[in-house]
Records
---
Amino acid sequence: VGTDDGNVQLTRDGGKTWTNFRSKIPGMPVGAWVPQIKASRHNAGEAFVVTNDYRRGDFKPYIFRTTDYGKTWNNMLANKNIDGYALCVLQDPVEPNLIFVGSEHGLCVSFDNDNSFQHWKNDDFPAVSTFDLAEQERESDLVVATFGRAVWVLDDIRSLRKMAANNGKLFNKR
């Protein structure tokens, strides 16, 4: 659970007890907004916490990732080429190396499990505030919700999954 005043909490017993990570996530601005938390569908204990603090003038991108139920965290966007604060994240439900990030200035993609990111540069998708991401799994389509523009659909991302399965390389070296 995330809140608009910087609380990130986890229950593992159906809500009987909660662990608050507010002061346990290194680099997370105190009191920052937590607009989204996504649990990995691939690994137990893995989650992505989207945080931003633009309302107080901090426009840096923050998405914190844990792989051990919150014992350790890292800001997966630190020192990456992401423009603007983060708004959403989506780890592909089929290929875990494929990660999409929506920011104030567009859509970014990682083909190597967050080691690097690149901006989605395509004439069809503008540098616009990207609020949410979802996949239409049957058709393998990425659905992108933007602020004030529209809903945008990238048809059939199976080729992106193939690249991500090879850590972003187009071809396997023999």
---
Amino acid sequence: EPGLNALFGLEYKQYENQTADIFTTESSDRAFEEEVMLSGFAQAQVKPEGAGVTYDNAQETFTARYTNETIALAFAITEEAIEDNLYDRLASRYTKALARSMAQTKQVKGAVPFNNGFGTFTSGDGSALFATNHPTIAGTVSNTLATAADLNETSLEQSLIDIAAMTDERGLKIAAKGMKMIIPSALQFTAERLMASAGRTGTADNDINAIKSMGMIPQGYSVNNYLTDTDAFFIITDVPNGMKHFERSPLTTKMEGDFDTGNVRYKARERYVFGVSDYRGVFASPGA
């Protein structure tokens, strides 16, 4: 078009897929998926001489349900724009914008369990995802600090101590370990000092950095730019079947002409869900 030099505003860089190192991705072929938590047995009992053996019952304790959501977005290029020879330029840029919107939506959805995990996002047991009182047959289990704290040496060490103290549904130790810390961008400098310094930070004492020297968080930390709380931090543990992403339908695109208007329409669609099966797969603090 005469006088049109550039179409701009759609060429911004974007963050990489930040959910990939948090969630385990599995395929889905149903409207929803369910995963059931099973309890094992309690500790074995002493059998007095001549007495009968003690029986115990394994059982289901709770069910985590993942309901797949359909995510879709569309745009149209008008018949008039096609007549004015803008079709190629608009189609090229708008399809990139469509892909960008779909990708960022997925990142926002993947951050929901963290952003809402202290309130509305619940675990399969009915408690908030991050709670000090997840109910079990043998009592309660915590996957958050007893006293909320900002990220520092003390709170990080206490988080790792609490992770190591986790128990299963029957109260048996599970030997859990922290593997990777997930933080908002506001905490990246604090995390780097805590994880990379050879000595303790913020002190004149000539002490080693125990977290680093012991390899307590072997996968380091990762910044997630879609976390909304600037002082909350999260630790992914090695407990299996924790954070999960079910993919029902991968991203697909379609285009078609509209007879009534003469417009050309483009649509992108995918179906997926993010969630958690075993809350022991992640530990968190909301910050002070």
---
Amino acid sequence: YYLGNLPAPTGMDGRSQVVSTDVADSIEWMLPIIIESLIAKGAVIDFDAISKDDERQAALESAYVHDTFLSKNDGFLNLYTFVKDALIQQNGILKVWYDDSTKTTTETYSNVTLPELQALEADESIELTDVEEYMTEYGPLFNVAVERTVATGKVIVECVPPEDFIISADHNSLDLTEVRFCSQRIRSTRSDLIEQGYTAEQLD
């Protein structure tokens, strides 16, 4: 109905082929009003101060969450999709999680002195993969190759398509606290799965 597609053929000749766009018109009319009510007042979420001494902390938390949601996670687009899914399919799902993945890069250094080499060895984010020593008139120097692993942890917010959201069939509440199970079904390509760490043998 939202797309204005004709219902399945009824087999009756002469029936009108006109399809009303009332559903789409109503949803598109309501969307801006709902979105504005969610973000126009200020922070997306307000943290209440527990005491008078906690007011500044609560304000900082509210500002941080607002910036994380809107600026760093395409918050407006997520909200727009979330509300539109809810209006069309009766369910809007936002998934929020902390991505604690790491990023590893390879670096090389030339003419490294012994104190500099010891500093590299002491760095917990670095693993030495190759050390080449050579002598100079000033003493030993080193050419070094390292792998640096850096945590890139961040909060991620994404809108989950309702058709990819699975929930226990016996759950009858909007509150998911007591749900027996819920999950997200993700369709991945073979290359995506290999990049995530699965082996070709496992996939076969």
